[in-house]
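Weekly sync, protein design subgroup
Attendees: M.S., D.O., the rotation student, P.L. (late)

Item 1: inverse folding check
M.S. brought a backbone from last month's batch and wanted to see whether the design step gives back something sensible before we order anything. D.O. pointed out we never logged the input encoding, so this time it goes straight into the notes. Structure tokens as presented (124 positions):
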């Protein structure tokens, strides 16, 4: 009976690991967003440090109010992991506008790399 329990644990662990490989990461941004480039670089570095090696990032241009309404857009840039805002707020918007993040250094147009790493690890 113990063997079966261990086998179930091994299978559950394997399923969890496999599931982590299927994570979907998406950067939502508007055209000419002054912060999307830096956010993408920080996100790529954070993903490299905290996620499986085959994790990919999809960059999605939000080019209309209709598109913003369809996705979980809270301003540009917004980072989604498995369809969930990595930095959730009540501030969803249909406006093609910039987003402000609270960082250790005050308000900024992008979260720090360390904030992204911590949020990815918590999402885990």
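Designed sequence read out in the meeting:
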């Amino acid at each position: 009976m113990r063997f079966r329990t261990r086998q179930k644990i091994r299978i559950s662990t394997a399923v969890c690991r496999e599931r982590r490989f299927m994570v979907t990461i998406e950067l939502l941004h508007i055209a000419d967003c002054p912060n999307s480039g830096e956010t993408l670089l920080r996100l790529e570095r954070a993903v490299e440090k905290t996620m499986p090696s085959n994790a990919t990032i999809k960059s999605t241009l939000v080019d209309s109010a209709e598109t913003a309404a369809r996705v979980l857009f809270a301003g540009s840039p917004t980072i989604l992991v498995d369809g969930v805002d990595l930095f959730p707020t009540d501030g969803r918007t249909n406006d093609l506008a910039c987003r402000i993040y609270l960082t250790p250094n005050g308000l900024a147009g992008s979260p720090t790399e360390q904030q992204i790493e911590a949020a990815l690890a918590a999402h885990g």
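Discussion: The helical segments are 2-21, 36-50, 65-70, 113-123. The first strand starts at residue 25 and ends at 29.
Action: P.L. to compare against the previous round before Friday.
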